UniProtKB/TrEMBL annotation:
Keywords: Kinase, Transferase. InterPro entries: P-loop_NTPase. It comes from the Bacteria. GO terms for molecular function: kinase activity. It comes from Acrocarpospora corrugata. The lineage of its organism: Bacteria, Bacillati, Actinomycetota, Actinomycetes, Streptosporangiales. This is Uridine kinase. Gene3D superfamilies: P-loop containing nucleotide triphosphate hydrolases.
Amino acid sequence: MMQDEEMRARPITTERLIEDLADRIAAYSRQDWVRVAVDGAPATHPADLADALVEPLRVRGRGTLRVSSWDFLRPASLRFEYGKQDPDAYYDDWLDANALTREVLAPLDPGGSGKVLPKLWDPVKDRATRTPYTMVAPGTILLLDGTLLLGRWLPLEFTVHLRLSPAALERRVTDAWTIPAFLRYEQEVAPASVADVAVSVDRPHHPALIEEP
């Protein structure tokens, strides 16, 4: 895992970051589905970056499908088995990675059916969404946002990690009880090292690309 003092971060504007990511993603084959994940703690707003990529990709001739991992959480009875503020359960048990793979990612494997369920579970109402399946055209880019996504062996072509340093986690994470889960993520997965693109967002309006020494 890269320690903070070992990281090199190159400042980049948000606009340039979005354009650069769109260029890289759009370069994938137009005949194949492309599964992209934007990963980060909720305080980094990964959904906002995934949303921001939709229009630049459209301009580049690529259709998109937006999916959020928050629509693939396990039922409350499973998520909260050890209480509502257990960081290990948050890390290990909240996301139904098998359902996300089965309903969204695996159908977009090469030779897959292309039949995707964009939403499975409403975590607020704690019930199935009853969202219909959708057929995804070849060449469509899946933009998946979520938290703690890396290191789960999800089948993905391209990954972006939005990183907060431990000090920034302390400042910006509103649910302080989740911080041990993110520190564990750093230790066990080192997401900034395994992602295709890692971005430091300690200063929200001044991102910086993380480059390994």
